[in-house]
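Q: What structure does this chain adopt?
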Amino acid sequence: MKRHVASLAFAGLGLVAVAIVASAWGFAPMAGEALSTDDAYVRGDVTVIAPRVAGYVDRVLVSDFAHVREGEPLVRLRTEDYVAQVARAEAVLRSREAALAANVEAQQEALAAIEQARASRVAGQAERQRSATSFARGETLWKQGVYTTESLDQARAARDSSAANVIRAAAAVDAAKAHAATLVAQAAGLQADVATAKADLDLARIQAGYTVLAAPADGVVGERMARVGQYVQPGVQVFALVPSRGRWIIANFRETQLARIAIGDRVKVSVDALGDARIDGRVTAFAPASGSDFALLPPDNATGNFTKIVRRFGVRIDLDGPASTVARLRPGMSVVVSVQPNRVPTTRRQVTAR
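A:
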């Protein structure tokens, strides 16, 4: 009897040893057997909140690990410099707009000057015609001895003066037109100056608005990285925000297990931090490469002795619920996942050492 019990014990130990060796060498389990791993963690979006302008912290409006709503102010920077920039930009805009308004008024005056010069030219032409006719009549009378030489000379002078006035009037019209054209050309530059000043004012107002750092979504903030009076630079983190929604699992399975896992496979998730709580999920995506290939210095086995090591690949698992339990998850929590595969395992190649 004792010998029989000893035999059964040795047989049991042998089966355990075979199972351990099979697991170590990567042999697949039987079809339908769940695949589990504890190399799995909760993931979620973590938003870094950083200022877009430099400045001194005026107020920190929330405490560590506070629940915040979208748009809620978190940090305020001192605004004196940015308020002054807005005022300066407003003054520059007023100056540019005044210059443009003066140009428009000058154009109106130039158009009036053109009309006045044209009227003077028409009047001069009429006077030239009258004086020319008067001189011609006087010259005829002078030849007949009726008109004096002095009177003829006066008529000739009036004729020549009226002709000169016509020339001056024509030149005045041309000058007025040239002046108007110059004002029109200047108006284009002044309009561009006004547009630039408006853009500068908009930018100054936007930068002044950047002195308030608000929550981009509902969620929970991390530890404060800024204190009142601290000088912060653009892009330097002052808070991290974890949105209330958006949780998933990244489970790292051995490559020898991937052949039995498919998109849509059902998953059971247990969370270390939540005791006996269980969450349902499903496989939704596979990593495009092993974790080691994403390393800063990936391994290079081209030289030296080589020992094959089973790699791990990330598998994304989306969570279906219950919602109350999913809401308690935090990125970074450790979990244990169990995938119920639908595939029959394939034969594994023996791992050889070189």
